[in-house]
Design a protein that fits this description.
The structure is a homodimer. Chain A has helices spanning about 20-30, 60-65, 75-85, 110-115, 135-140, 165-185, 195-205, 210-215, 250-260, 260-270, 280-285, 285-300, 300-310, 320-330, 375-380, 385-395, 400-405; strands spanning about 10-15, 35-40, 70, 95-100, 120-125, 190-195, 230-235, 240-245, 315-320, 335-340, 345-350, 355, 400. With about 400 residues, the first copy, chain A, is of the alpha/beta class. Chain A has two domains: about 10-205 and about 340-405, Rossmann fold, CATH 3.40.50; about 240-320, no CATH class. In chain A, the strands form three sheets. In chain A, strands 6-5-4-1-2-3-13 form a seven-stranded mixed β-sheet, sandwiched between helices. In chain A, strand 10 (about 335-340) and strand 11 (about 345-350) form a beta hairpin. In chain A, helix 1 crosses helix 6 and helix 6 crosses helix 7. The longest helix of chain A has 24 residues, at about 165-185. Chain A is elongated. Chain A starts with 9 loop residues before the first strand and ends with a helix. Chains A and B meet through helix 1, helix 2, helix 5, helix 6 and strand 6 of A and helix 1, helix 2, helix 5, helix 6 and strand 6 of B. Strand 12 (about 355) of chain A pairs antiparallel with strand 6 of chain B, so a sheet runs across the interface.
Chain lengths: ~400, ~400
């Protein structure tokens, strides 16, 4: 990345867990200055697992990379006033506020508009009416767990990846940037809102799954097969496992060629009067195809499978443990993952935004220590004197790292 | 939404499957004009499952809502020239190009820059070096399937939701919009790239999972439990199922109160010398907590469970089938889902973008019929005469709906 595209943007973030913080981090990784505001003792996500051996949260450190951290007790009137001032700072790229607060703590758009009429505000919610929800509950409610896992068990399987959280963060960033482009042209702000439950519904809708379910009833879980085409997993002779996918005719042909099963499938097509060049036919015969291919994989170690599949241009991937994936990423100098020196943790493998700009990636930055930027931000952004900051500290309106840990 | 924020933007999309098309659709749902270019016979995703009873693809119809469809054989020199002309159309909001083509078909950034020096181009890839990958293979390679599903099985469980595809589409839109804000300020274009494999690595990195795995080794699958806190599923007396989550102290207290188990957990804390107000303690004792809570759920039908949990403000959600989720969304007038009249399919439940603008959602628009806008776009955007368009049709350089079906 030559010049970070969002270096003109200054975002105030008052959010916890995954969606809000990942939205702010994404904007920061594109060059925006992102101030995260927390209560002096930290947000409810500050100690979230996984933890480093030091006890610090690897989760928090990785969702807040590159931000500045300011701690303010926004439940107090004086603290709330500071947050309003920071949110409405002057400047063409300021006046961008993201939060997921509800109830009494939430700053209203109206009180921000009193100070700055072109505010862009994004509220991240569970349900659009403000009721709480988290990834695990919206995923269950939208029908995905009953489609996941082994065929026939009837038991729902939750996804482990908080996919809706991550997607909510990215879509919130999309909404904010759309509003920024508009404000650059018209001078007008925007009142934005995104709810996890809407993201999940919109997501399954985009795949055609809502329309499908109304037409055909719920789709049953079908193990690791790829719906509507051919794709499944195979074990190798040395206990490794690979995911094989044949979406296109070329991929299917490559798979038949490398496994030497072309004549078997030709004969099968004749016997059953089907055409396996069609994706739908491959899906319908997925168990049969899998059974015919399986011996080829189970007779070979992963090294041989890898070489043969790559040479034949089969679409495939190995199953890895997270540890193996991390170790490989650490070795790869072109990867979006690299080590940072994280305060409170030490050397830590961290990742940057996956958007590559002019051929390169930005390096990941470490996360701040909670409250590390409070004094500087109050002085430089709000023009407070050392004595004023000292008084706020003493009254517990704001926090700094030493104090936060002591309290 | 009052004025769509991206109505100044005109995007040319030359992409298939989920990531590219969902990127374009997202921009379109915020007001951009999105032209999707396909080969006259359709892209490899045009017949992708799930299908409507008419045989048309519900998948395609839902990933291409609100776009215009132009069919051009860009493998032919004359077709390629037309795509270059459309991609480099004049206008401050034009010159935005998204594709996932590789090999000979791919338009190079260099040939676009010859016509327009401020092009914003986004290439969507499997791996950053251009090798193919799909959601199923990158998910396996990044370690998530070995963390998913029942404890102890050791078998990987694929997610069914193509989460990395959807996230790639959203992050591609973020990158494009960041570039648009920059171009509005500096007049400079941008060379952008995003790879599915990078998105997956960046995503698990953001959650702290790479750092965790290097420190602690791979995390084992642990069923439907929420990692690092308390959350799991329970069956009700009438065969329904609910997901219960207690991340905060308040949520945990509400759960103890409504189930009348407070004294049991108090005694358990004394007996084991632990403090269940701590998330980590709840996670460590997740099986025990689940066993103590289970009888309360299994003794009650879902209607009673729902009423009690809502009254007590427990964080929970029902498990639903996709059909039930769709039926509920269809009834809800405030939902992001509503019915559209989809050409080739009929009434179809479709969803719009989950970003709510000034309190409202935009209505979903139907997808175009393949090639429906070819003639109008060639005439209006490129100034071609009817005779010129007729000649291109005859030579098979471009397509229109009738021809496409006949070929």
């Amino acid at each position: 990345m030559t010049t970070p595209p969002l270096s003109h943007l200054r975002v105030l973030e008052c959010a916890t867990f995954v969606a809000g913080p990942s939205c702010g981090m994404t904007l920061g990784q594109l060059g925006a200055e992102v101030l995260r505001v927390d209560l002096p003792q930290g947000g409810s996500d500050h100690q979230r697992w996984p933890l480093a051996t030091s006890g610090a949260s690897l989760y928090w450190a990785n969702l807040n990379k590159g931000k500045r951290s300011v701690t303010i007790d926004y439940r107090l009137p004086a603290g709330r006033e500071l947050v309003v001032e920071l949110a409405t700072r002057p400047g063409a790229g300021s006046g961008v506020f993201v939060d997921n607060l509800v109830g009494r703590s939430a700053l209203t758009r109206a009180e921000l508009l009193e100070r700055r009429s072109d505010m862009i505000t994004m509220r991240i919610l569970g349900f659009p009416d403000g009721r709480p929800a988290v990834d695990y509950t919206v995923n269950a409610a939208v029908g995905v767990p009953y489609m996941t896992g082994l065929a026939g068990s009837g038991e729902p399987v939750n996804h482990v990846l908080p996919a809706w959280d991550l997607l909510t963060g990215a879509m919130a960033a999309v909404g904010l940037l759309a509003a920024v482009t508009q404000r650059q042209q018209t001078g007008e702000g925007a009142d934005l809102q995104i709810a996890l439950a809407d993201v999940a519904l919109s997501g399954v809708g985009a795949l055609g799954w809502l329309a499908e379910a109304l037409q055909d009833g719920p789709r049953a879980a079908h193990g690791n097969h790829v719906f509507g085409s051919f794709g499944t997993d195979f074990a190798t002779s040395d206990g490794e496992r690979v995911m094989i996918v044949a979406l296109t005719q070329g991929q299917w042909q490559a798979l038949c060629d490398v496994t030497g099963t072309g004549a078997v499938f030709d004969a099968l097509e004749s016997a059953l009067g089907t055409d396996l060049r069609e994706e739908s036919a491959r899906y319908e015969l997925r168990e049969t195809i899998g059974s015919i291919l399986r011996p080829w994989f189970s007779a070979r170690p992963i090294a041989e499978v890898r070489e043969d599949l790559d040479r034949a241009r089969v679409l495939w991937g190995p199953y890895r443990t997270m540890s193996d994936a991390a170790a490989l990423a650490r070795q790869d100098a072109t990867s979006v993952a690299s080590e940072v020196e994280q305060p409170g943790i030490g050397r830590m493998l961290a990742t940057t935004i996956p958007v590559r700009w002019n051929g390169g990636t930005s390096a990941p930055a470490p996360a701040p220590v909670l409250g590390a930027d409070t004094e500087q931000v109050l002085a430089e952004e709000l023009g407070l004197s050392g004595a004023e900051i000292g008084a706020l500290l003493q009254r517990g309106v704001v926090g700094v790292p030493g104090r936060a840990e002591a309290s």
